[in-house]
Amino acid sequence: MSEFWYHMKWLMVVWMGVMSSVAPAQWKDPKWLAGAEGLGQTDGNIWSATAYPASLTRRVGSSLGVYGEKRFITDLLFFDLAYAGKLGELPFVVQAQREGNAFFSGNLVAFGAAKSVHERWDIGIRLGYHATMARGYTTTGSVTAGLGSLFKCNEQLTIGFQADGINHFFSPESSLGYRVRAGAGYRVSEFFTLTAEGLKEQSDPVAMLVAMHYRFLEQAWARMGYISKHNSFVCSVGFVYKGVETELSSTYHLSLGLSAGLSLMYRFKQDQ
After folding, report:
1. Cα–Cα distance for residue pair 37/140, rounded to 1 Å
2. CA angle 220, 96, 127 (to 5 degrees)
3. What's the pTM value of the predicted model, to 2 decimals?
4. What's the rounded Cα separation, in Å, for the pair 91 and 114?
5. Among 268, 251, 225, residue whose Cα is nearest residue 37
6. Coil/strand/helix, residue 271
7. When you count CB atoms within 10 A of the terminal residue's CB, does the N or C end of the chain come out lower?
8. Which whole-number Å values give the CA distances from 200 to 24, 149, 191, in the listed order?
9. Comparing C-alpha atoms, which of 127, 195, 140, 198 is closest to residue 167?
10. Element (H or E) spanning 74, and its range?
């Protein structure tokens, strides 16, 4: 019986890996609360650009970030490396992701940039290349493109929109699919923000993500959210010390259990 469950375990690992690697939407990073950060009205952490590249205009200076997560099954790992800075007056972010295990992997490199077209309106673009590699199969890859915007309605309310994989509509055979997200962030006070987002991926129904962000100290904060797509809860706690932001995050799935993540970001001294 133990041998049966051993093989069942590996069958599940391979199945989940193949499904996540060849899934139509390539932007399946696990930083679910990045959207809440992007919809906030403050200088967000570097991961806000993974959800809404238009939020890059709010950044002050340059920073380097690394994120790692152990998925629900221990064989599945996710890593993300990003650098945000400026080319002249153009804020940008470059990013590299890797997801998978010894049997398969999904790899992404991407470039995002943003521009303010109005004091209340920012737009952002993202271009990338995603490759899927599985043992015994040919490596496949695709160029992907994204476009989005953030609009600050007033001092409290911000709305955002981001569409990735839009090249799918012009060349379906060369794209891995599309992902569209839209949401709003309401800043209740200087320390407390509420957000709500809708997320549509090509092969999935619309999912909802509601979250709150609370900064209980000048150097510390907490986020909590609920994802209808997976019927999952997500939370994180972070703090900053001498320019280094550390954030611990976790996602709890009612069936699969807990995933744990760690984010480290360094803001360069000349920008602090």
Report:
1. 32
2. 110
3. 0.79
4. 6
5. 225
6. helix
7. N
8. 11, 17, 30
9. 127
10. none
Say if residues 222 and 202 touch (Cβ distance below 8 Å).
no
Query: For residue 244, what are its two tokens?
Result: 């280094």
| Residue reference for tokens 């993202």 | 126
3-state helix, strand, coil in the chain (%, to 5): 15, 55, 30
Burial state string for 135-161 with b = 16 or more CB within 10 A and e = fewer than 16: eeeeeeebebbbebbbbbeeeeebebb
Alpha-carbon span 208 to 215, nearest angstrom: 23
Exposed, middle or buried: residue 111 (CB in 10 Å: 0-12, 13-18, 19+)? middle
Q: Please state the length of the chain.
A: 272
Encoded tokens for 28: 């399946």
DSSP-derived secondary structure letter, 106: E
Rg of the chain (C-alpha set): 18
Residue whose structure tokens are 């320019």: 243
Q: What is the pLDDT of residues 179-229, one digit of tens each?
A: 889 999 999 988 899 999 998 887 778 889 999 988 888 788 888 888 887
CA distance linking residue 265 with residue 207, whole number of Å: 29
User: In terms of Cα–Cα distance, which of 72, 51, 79 is closest to 258?
Assistant: 72
Report pLDDT digits (tens) over 26-60: 335 566 778 777 887 666 678 888 888 999 988 77
Give 101: exposed, middle or buried? Use CB within 10 Å, 0-12, 13-18, 19+: middle
Tokens of 86: 């400026």
